[in-house]
């Protein structure tokens, strides 16, 4: 079996999800950074890996996989991570919880989307902050309400990490980065505390950058 290679960017939410899953699976991989700020995702080398110009790209099992949710599904099915329940109804409910972040919050809070909105509107320099807060805060409020339908013992949907936890933690990283109020979200904060203490999540966390190495 060939070495697993993950092409990612340290602050990419989608890449963060895949790093967590790889850690949960105990898969050793080689990380190859794709600097989104420098535009490396638009270079010929990366477009050959993924014509969409997105990260992550995971090379594993002689496959080249894109789209974080598809990668998570592949790892779940091949490494038996138990990210989703077997029961069809419960599976759909947990997927809906995870997608509330991955499908509804994350796409509009992509930095390229915020930058384009800023360019079109001509707003001031603080526009990205306001944009992120406008979408992240209501999304997390809804996620908090949805969590009431699950038993946090102690993860989002039970005793072991699942798809919802993997989607939640990168979004909380962004929430804290953009100064989104989260103090009134007790269920979310309880899950965050649990996940933060889990080795697979901790190892995937975007480390504080050295100014000379990484942009803010």
Automatic annotation (TrEMBL):
EC annotation from Swiss-Prot or TrEMBL: 5.2.1.2
Domain GST N-terminal, residue spans: 2-83
Keyword S-adenosyl-L-methionine: no
Gene Ontology MF terms in the entry: maleylacetoacetate isomerase activity
Record bears the keyword Isomerase: yes
Residue ranges the record marks as coiled coil: none
First-level EC class: isomerase
GST C-terminal domain mapped to chain residues: 87-216
Keyword annotations of the record: Isomerase
Gene3D superfamilies (UniProt xref): 1.20.1050.10, Glutaredoxin
InterPro entries: Glutathione-S-Trfase_C-like, Glutathione-S-Trfase_C_sf, Glutathione_S-Trfase, Glutathione_S-Trfase_N, GST_Zeta, GST_Zeta_N, Thioredoxin-like_sf
PANTHER family in the record: GLUTATHIONE S-TRANSFERASE YFCF, MALEYLACETOACETATE ISOMERASE
Similarity comment text for this entry: Belongs to the GST superfamily. Zeta family.
Protein name: Maleylacetoacetate isomerase
């Amino acid at each position: 079996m060939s070495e697993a290679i993950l092409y990612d960017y340290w602050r990419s939410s989608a890449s963060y999800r895949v790093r967590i899953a790889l850690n949960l699976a105990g898969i050793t991989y080689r990380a190859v950074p794709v600097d989104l700020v420098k535009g490396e995702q638009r270079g010929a080398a990366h477009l050959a890996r993924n014509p969409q110009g997105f990260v992550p790209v995971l090379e594993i099992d002689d496959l080249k996989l894109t789209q974080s949710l598809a990668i998570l599904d592949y790892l779940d099915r091949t490494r038996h991570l138990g990210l989703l329940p077997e029961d069809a109804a419960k599976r759909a409910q947990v997927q809906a919880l995870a997608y509330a972040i991955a499908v509804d919050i994350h796409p509009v809070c992509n930095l390229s989307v915020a930058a384009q909105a800023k360019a079109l509107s001509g707003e001031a320099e603080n526009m990205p902050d306001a944009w992120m807060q406008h979408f992240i805060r209501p999304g997390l409020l809804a996620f908090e309400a949805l969590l009431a339908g699950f038993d946090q013992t102690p993860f989002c949907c039970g005793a072991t990490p699942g798809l919802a936890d993997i989607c939640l933690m990168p979004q909380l990283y962004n929430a804290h980065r953009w100064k989104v109020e989260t103090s009134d979200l007790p269920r979310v904060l309880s899950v965050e505390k649990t996940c933060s203490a889990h080795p697979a999540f901790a190892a995937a966390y975007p480390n504080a950058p050295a100014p000379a190495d990484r942009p803010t």
